[in-house]
Amino acid sequence: MKINCIIVDDEPASRAVLQKYIADTDTLDLIAVCKNAVAANAALRNHTVQLMFLDINMPKISGLQFLKSLSHPPQVIFTTAYPEYAVDGFELNALDYLLKPFSFERFLKAVNKYTFPEERSQTSENKIVLLKSEKKLYRIPLKDLVYLEALGDYVRVVFGTSSFLVNSTFQNLLEQVAGANMVRIHRSFAIALDKFEYIDGNQIVVNGKHFTIGKAYKKALLHRIQA
To answer: Spelled out in words, what is the top-level CATH class assigned to the domain 3-114?
Structure first.
């Protein structure tokens, strides 16, 4: 099955590279090439788009601003020459973040993260993740994950009524459990969105436990909940 995609980038050289990479990828079908957010908005209205390669630093409307304006955005892979935007990109639930210039191999790795809607609807219900802790390999159903807590060089993984520590960076572990619909709410915490009970000011309650929502994460959290 082909993935309908569009390119949104104001740089001709960057658009040319993406067009070549897409042409060399059998699973992708390029629907439109857009120089700015206005053209991209028209493409999204006129076509069924499943994947968007979106530049961040564009004139008038940035890629980040454009994505935030969409009520039902397609899956997104950000492309940019500025690494400082990476955190913002992932907070908007992007599939991946490609730092220009990127290789075809790195491009394919990002594309392979795409999942079709019917697969996403079953992701946390049927899939598992294998996590290593103290020489043991744990098989964890994604639907059982409750929250993650960053603790220096380790991350506490809480699932059901159990927990253990994994030697990993917080971002790497978030990528491993992407199918669990985890959302970052603080520099040190990410919660399973389907486990939260209510939000009271800057507090969110998940399975009876109170967490503080970081100011930098609240807007993205509310966006995910409303979506």
So the answer is: alpha beta
